[in-house]
Every structure is written in structure tokens, then in C-alpha cells.
Amino acid sequence: MKDKILNILKEEERAYTAFELKDILGLNTTEEIESMLKVLNELESNLTIYHTNKDKYMAFEYSHLKKGKISVSEKGFGFILMEDEEDIHVDGKHLNGAVDGDLVIAEITNKNTGAKKEGRVLRIASRFYGPIVGEYIYNDGKPTIKVNDRKFKQTIVLTKESTKDAVDGHIVVANVIKELDRETVLTEITNIIGHKNDVGVDIEAIVYKHMFSPKFPDEVLEELKDIPDVVREEDKVGRRDLTDEVIFTIDGDDTKDIDDAISIKKLDNGNYELGVHIADVSYYVKPGTKLYDEAYERGTSVYLVDRVIPMLPHKLSNGICSLNPNVERLAQSCVMEIDSKGNVVSHEIFESVIKSNIQMTYKKVNKWLEEGITEVGYAPFTEKLTLMKELSDIIRQNRESRGAIDFGTDEAKIIADETGKPIDVILRERGTGEMMIEDFMIAANETVAAHVFYMELPFVYRVHGTPKEEKVNDFINFVSMLGYKITGKVNIQYSSSIQNILNQLKDKKEYKILSSLMLRAMQKAVYQPENIGHFGLASKIYTHFTSPIRRFPDTTVHRLLRTYLYENDQSKKTVDYFKEYLPVLTEHASLKERDAIECEREVEDMKMAEYMMDHVGEEFTGTISGVTSFGMFVALPNMIEGLVHISDIGGDYYNYDERTMSLVGQKHKKRYRIGDEITVICKSASKEESFIDFEVKKESSEEDARSKEEKKVKEMD
Length: 717
Fold this sequence. Notes:
Blueprint: H1 2-12, H2 18-25, H3 30-45, E1 49-51, E2 57-59, E3 65-72, E4 78-81, E5 88-90, E6 103-110, E7 117-126, E8 132-139, E9 142-147, E10 155-158, E11 170-181, E12 184-195, H4 201-209, H5 218-223, E13 240-241, E14 249-251, E15 260-266, E16 272-279, H6 290-298, E17 302-303, E18 308-309, H7 314-320, E19 328-338, E20 344-355, E21 359-361, H8 362-371, H9 382-401, E22 412-416, E23 422-427, H10 432-453, E24 461-463, H11 469-481, H12 495-505, H13 511-521, E25 526-528, H14 552-566, H15 572-613, E26 619-628, E27 631-635, E28 641-645, E29 654-657, E30 662-665, E31 671-673, E32 677-686, E33 691-696, H16 700-716
């Protein structure tokens, strides 16, 4: 019945009363009607459908409403965290009783791109209590927790049994057992992270908050005893021996979990033979083991400022699974023949044994590819690197010609000292070597995905849907407000249309901000068993095959390849099993990916705020990246972003012009809009609250006027 109800609501895209649904479904008996009402309540509770004030039901996706988890700041406002669009700002007066972490239903109150989306909470769908992380203290002689997240307002009562090992100053993790009343919750301590002054505890506190853990359960570590430290002879049976081939890895300077290696040849017919060799994690991480279950639950590795929370224990991620140089390793290889136009004309996918010749770094590879400088030990491989660069250019041109989108967005890299204190924030480098490896990994991912897709077997796809027309039109309208006209027909079914828009804006001073805004208009990529293609890459069929050490979907892709290709098991029993299992797996993997991104973002925000605490009072030149009714966001060249509250602009009283998404001075008519360069002073910053506040530097005319006034006062004295 659930599917029938959803089909009715989705096909017609309108709202129905329960009586109308009863008639359409042809229900007559009391039992049938009660069953329908039960299904409607279930669909409403999980926000698949919406129950309107007029007692009608409609598919949530076709309503004007939004749903998401709300993050409420200590200052009283909040953001609804959206899955496939930009977050929605909610003023404190529009929270409607929602507190941090609640799942809420809201509506948009402004619809212009450029400004941060604003809305109001209509209903709290469900309360959410995740792990509570904070400092163990005594208050009025009673043990409690001073929660790190100052948005948490309720009083905590601890069970006596859970406090025995905790002492003042410990950072602890606790779970809510139940609400005692609206203001009080009963909790139990489940873990002691360490003392608040210990190095790294600040980051670990965020890690636990997002339900990741730096530690592996004892039963997982116990299973590691059965995993060898080296490749044994019995492990090689049935595998192709590639240990005599010239194969090497290229990664970052500090990479320890190496899961991809490459090889290349120029064939007699003029084509290229590209080999992408990926660590065979699935050989060691097998279903039915605690190790597999733990990897599934984690879903992904989490990359933080000065550490990695790995999906797999170090014995695997840095040891037997890592493609370290000069040692044999098990791999799954995708070897492709690619013609001069970048087309894969043939390919092989097989189990292999490889031995990487050298562990290269992007920095040293770029020295050769960009400057012609040969680093020590690289001379025997420069010819291969040059050939790889030649092929990379061809592959990239092929991808660009079919319409792949290049947003060209920057990423920040936080440099920390040995105590975890941030000492610099710079832009992450993305040179020729990085782009070359990206090209090769995309080619392998597409090839593997297409191979299984045409076998018509259950599989894991990495998909990216087409953007919503409304969002793209909002963006184009916003760009026109800035005085830029987009020429040519825009057809959102083709990614080349989006790239054409970006190309027309590339020479504009606001391009970085505009590119970021366009990216927000796109849907988010996810994992699912149904192939809909990857819009951003202009790829008809795509998967993730190349990073099984750090992504569980990749490990699963390897497991499927082993099942279907190497073991030749395509039985009905196996196919039916994966048809049932993969939807659950992909949904979980997509959720854990979002959790990891939120965790990484929160750590970065905290460390950026900590960095700016040492720069309070200093002057910076930045770009206005967002404008709202309460102020404007300013991004510095190194991606640090802070808020200039409307009261900290000075020199005038400013009003928000929603039509042009700008702040306009009431008296002098000075206008602040997205993309404007602006000089600000860091007013304040807080590591604990992860915020940075800027104020606009007063213009020289204002300073001169103030100086003259001060001089006049002194003369009068």
C-alpha cells in the first residue's frame, strides 16, 4: 500500500485528503482504511509526505517546504542543513522552538540566489540527541557536564554508575537516556576522551560528536592477528603477476594510505595503454567479519587538520593494503587502451600482484612536469611521466568536449604545529600532477562502471543528478543583477550549458564567488544502485573504484568485481542478495559521507577561528561572499570567512535590498554587494564557538573627519 500511495501523490503532484485516497485505492473495509491511515502516519513521520493544515497529504518533494537538521548558534540564529542545496538561515524569532540538532520542516522566506537563503521553521519533525561531548565538572556539589556545544541549553543529570572514572577537567562523551522535563536530561558517560589540556583532545571531541571514533573495538583488533604482514604465495594464486612492470604511485607528501598506482605504455598502433592498479582491500576485509562490519559502519576515513580517522586499522591502511614501494601488494587492475582522442577502445579488469617502483610526491612530479627539474631518484621515470602528461591532456580535453564542469573552487589547508595549534592557513595546491592522477582515476571509474552496467547486474554507482531549473534560473537572474548578461540557450539537461555559463563569467572579478554560488545550485553527488549518470563529470556511467582504503563503496565495488568477474558468480541467489543489500549500503554510505564532511568542516571552522584569535585587530582585504539582512560574509584569499554584522559597517545606517541582494546606506547610498573587494579588521574570534567577526575598516574620509574633530576638541581644551 505504501508504494501505491506514493505513486498517487507523485504522479499527480497534488494534495489529497484521506477520503480521496481511500476512494482512489478502492478501500472499503475498516481494516483497509485503518491500514491506510497507519501508512500515512508512517510516511508523515519520516517526512516522505507532508500533512497540510487543510488535512491533505502531498509528496514532500513537490511541496514548497524544506526539511533538514537545524544547527542553532549560541547567538540565537540557526541554519537548516540541506542535503542537495545551500543551507537555509533562520532568524532566532523564526525558530519556533527548534533547538540544535532537531529535524525540522521549514519554508523559504526569500528565494534569491546570492543572499544566504532565509526561512522559518514551521514544525519540529523530531528531536535529536546525538552524543553529548563536554567537560566533566562539579556544579553546586553535583557532577555534570559543561557541554562543548554552547547551543545545548538543557541541564544534564548524570547517572552515578557512569561517573566513577571521571575527574574534573576530563572531556567526556555521554548519551541521553531520557528527558526528565523540558529543561533537564538524564545522561550516562560512555567514554572519557582525555583531559581538556591534552594535545588533540579539542579535535577528538568533534570527532566523537559526529559519531566517529579514533579507536577500533577490541574484537576488530583481535581479527587483525589473522591478517598477514606480507603477501603470501597462496594469496597470489589466480592473479596476474605485474611485479616486473614499471608501476609507481603519486601522492601528497604526508600520504601513508596509498591505494592507487599507475603504469603507462605507448603501443605500436599509436594508442596508449594506461594501467590503474588499486589496492585489493576486499581480499582482506571480508563479509561476516567484525572488520567488515566496522568498515561498513564508519563508511569513510575522515581527514582532519593534523590526523586521519581511518576507516580501516593502520595494519591494513598503512600496511598490507597500502601500495608501498618495493614490496609486493595485491591489487585489482583496470588496464585501458586509449586512442588519440581520449576514447577507451578496449580494457581488461583483473586481479593482480604489483610492486611499486617508487613512491612519488605531487610536489616533486610537478617540478618535472611544470619546470623540467628532475628530483633525486626520478630520472628513470621522467619519460613515463611525460607520456602520462601527454595522455592526461588528451583525456581532459575529451571530458571537457563532452561538457564536464570545472568549477575551479579553491580549498584551504591549515598548517598546525606539533601541539595542533594552527600557525598558517594557505590554499591547497592543485598542480599538473594532481590533475593528471584525477584524470586517470576518472577514466578507470568510468570504465569499471560501464563494464558492470552492461552486464545488467546490481552495482554501486556514484551519481550526480541534473540541477533544478529554478535554481539555475535564480543564479542567472542574480548574475544579471550584477550587470552581466549570459548569452546562449541554457538547457540544464546538458552539463555543457552550465560550463558555458561559467566560461562567460571567468574574467569577472567576482568569478570565485560566482563559481561557488553556481556550485551551491547543483545537487550533491551520492551513492545509489540505480545509474542516472554523473552530471558534473558529463559521464553517463560512473562509480568509485579507486579508493577502497578510505571509502567503503569502493571496497564494495571490488567485492562485486570479485563476485561477478573473477569468481564468475552471477547466480540468481547472488543477484537477488545484492539487489536487496545495495540500496541499504549506498544510503548508509551517503549518510556517513555527509557526516564526515560536517566533521571535517567543523574542525576547520574551529581551527580557523583559533588561528584568527592571534590576529585580532589586524587588517585584511577580502571579498564579500554573501549578503543577508543581518550583515555580510567576507572571505579572505586563504578561504577564511567571517561575518561583518550590519552594526559593524559604520558610517551610516544600512538596509538590506533583497532585489539586488545588497546592503545600502540610508544616507550616503553606499552599496555592498557580493564580489566587492573590502578591507576589514578582525574584531573578535573564538575557538570555543568557532566564529570570526570582522568590522569594516573606516574609509580615509571618515578617519580624516574623525581626526579633525579630535583635533578641534584638543584645541578647545
